[in-house]
Write a structure and sequence with these properties.
single chain; about 300 residues; 6-stranded mixed beta sheet; 7 helices
Amino acid sequence: MSRKIKRRQLLIQGILGTFSLIGLDKIFSHFASSSNPTLASPLNKNPDSSPSPPQDSDNLLLRFVSVADTGTGASGQYEVANAMTHHYRQNPYPLVILAGDNIYNEGEIEKVDEVFEEPYAPLLQHGVQFHACLGNHDIRTDNGTPQVHYPGFHMQGRRYYTFQQGPVQFFALDTNHNADWAQQLPWLKQALANSNALWKIVFGHHQIYASGVYGPNNAAWVQPVKDLMKQYGVKLYINGHEHHYERTEPINGITYLTCGGGAGTRPVGRSPWTEFVAQRLSFAAYEVYANRIEIQGIGTNHQVFDRGMVSN
């Protein structure tokens, strides 16, 4: 065999080897990027391009959802629960904030199967944790104590409590008329002061700003809580009680999100500080990044009807 033919064969083998390595590299890159869908950035619009390495602010850190006023066991609750399950299949999340009125009408814990465990069975079976607070209907039986100790609500045996999930520390409040604010306010101040979390989110059943049946809340606890949230850099307050969806513009740096359309709805207007409002069965979905939280309002038709953002 001539030297020219040998050189030609070696050249062809080298080119084929290079393409093989490139192909393997693409295969391994594909598996690496798809192995953790929770952390894959949804902002990569063009997966075929070769973007520069993402900055920390573009890395998805946590997904969660919130819903409230759910515990009827009726068709409306199941419609929202099914939409939450559909969203989970598309965008897995580990956590649901359950912002009160978990069991209608009297908070009877013996109804927990039909108003909680059955509607959310697909999520519970996948290990999604619900973290609840007490609503006004929940305290009608034994002041809500059975719910406080129910394992599925993850309330740590306390009427107000805190927990951390990834970069977010959540602070659950008892906002009912008989709440022990003499103890709860100092606890909240200390818990917020001690937190080094990237994001701090407070949730309770009762609204602070809303445009529904009850309107803005003038209860004695509201101003001290607002002051503490502002002082310690809380950016988001989540509530139910009003049976609609509403997202405010930032008020002194804090966005207020009502997600009370978990089983039924009531008429709602709008206020000067309302960014978006809707009377519809729905839940809220959140994607947490280092510099922002992206919020979506999602209806029972699985469609996003609101998009908003909270900046850090």
